[in-house]
Amino acid sequence: MQTLRCDILILGCGPAGLAAALAAASCGKQVVILDDNPRPGGQIWREGPQVQLPALARRYREAVAAEKNITSLNGARLIARPSAHSVLFETADDSGLVEWQKLILCCGARELSLPFPGWTLPGVTGAGGLQAQIKHGLTLRGQKVVIAGSGPLLLAVAATVKKSGGEVRQIVEQAPLSALLRFGSSLWRWPEKLRQLATLAPRRYLSSSQVIRAHGETQLEAITLRDARGIERTIACQRLVMGYGLVANIETALLFGCALADEAIAVNRWQQTSVANIYAAGECTGFGGSELALAEGEIAGFAAADAEACAQALFARRGRWQAFAHAVNRTFTLPESLKNAATPDSLLCRCEDVRCGDVADADSWHQAKLTRRCGMGACQGKTCATTARWLYGWPLPQPREPLSPARAETLIALADTRTMR
Asked: Burial letters for 158-181: b for 16+ Cβ neighbours within 10 Å, e otherwise?
C-alpha cells in the first residue's frame, strides 16, 4: 500500500477541483487530487469517443497534467478516513493512504430521480446519464425522444439528442411560462448565457407540465404528461430523458463533520467549511454551473494556500455567477405538486424492489432501511436516499465506512492503519 503526503488534498476532479489544484499549486503547495473517474473533468467535462471537449476544459486538464506540484489519482475511490488528517483510497490494482494538512471537497452533485409509474422501464434514463452514454458511443438514430423535468439542462440535452440522431418529440418543463419569461428577460446580465440560449432555442417546448406515467411491457413505448390545467396527453416514444435538477453530494462532508445549509455544504466567503482546514467548492456547495464552480474552486485553492489576497481578487467574479445561480434556482424550484406522480406502486429503491407504498408508514430513512431493506442494494442508497429526502423530508443518514465496496486487502490495510495509530 502506497502512502502519499501533501499540503492540500482535493477530493474531486471536476472544474472546481481542477481550478483549486492549479491555484494552490501556483502558491508552491504540494497538491494531491483524488477522483473516482478514469480521467479528469468530472461529469460536465466527461471525455468519450463522441465528444469534443471544450477548449477551456482542455486547457485546465493540460495545465494540471503539466504542474509538477500536483499528483492526480484518477480511478480512485474514497474508502475511509483512518484518522483526522488522512484518507484511504482504492484503485483497480492497489490501495493507498493520503495524509494531508488541508482538504478541499469538490465532490460535485448528482441527479434527482423522481419516481412515477413506469420510471424504471428500459428506455427511461436521467438527463446526465444519457449524455454520458452518448459521449461513450450510444447513438439515438431514428429514435423518438421526450425530455422532461426542469432547468436549462433540458435544452442542452435536446441539442445532444439531435446530434446523436434522435428526434425530440417534446420538451416538458415543469416551471410556468411566466417564470421562464422573467428568467429569459434577465439574461442580459450574463451575455454568455444569452448567446448559449440562442444556440439552443428549442421547438416543441411545453411549460407547466410533467410526465406522470411511462408505458410499455419490456421497453418504453409511450409516456403520459399532464399540464397545469390537469389535461393529460399520451405521446409515443422510445426514450424518456428525466432531468429534475441536481442535488449536492454531501456524504463526504457528513463524514468529516461539516455543517450543511440548504442541503449543501455550508461555506464562508473563503469557501471554508465549519471544520478547520476543510474547504469546499463547486456543486457540493449548491448548484451553479461550471463558471461558478471554477471561481469557487480557485478561491478555495488560494485560501487553503493562505493566499488570501489572491482569493479576494476573485470575489467579484464569484458574485456574478452566484447571482446567475440564484436566478436559475428561483425559476426552476420544484413544487410540491410534483410528488403527486409518485403512486404507492411506484418503485423507490430499484435495487431491492421497494415501492413508495412499502415505506408509507416509515418516519425516517433508518426505519425504512431496517424494515424494508431500502437502500441496501448495489448502489447503497445513492439514488433512493436522495429521492426519499425530497419526497419525505428524511435527512441523509450519517455515512458509514467503508464508503464504497472495497477489496478485503484494502479493509485489512484500514484495520492495520488504525491499529498502528
From this structure: bebbeebebbbbbbbbbbeeebbe
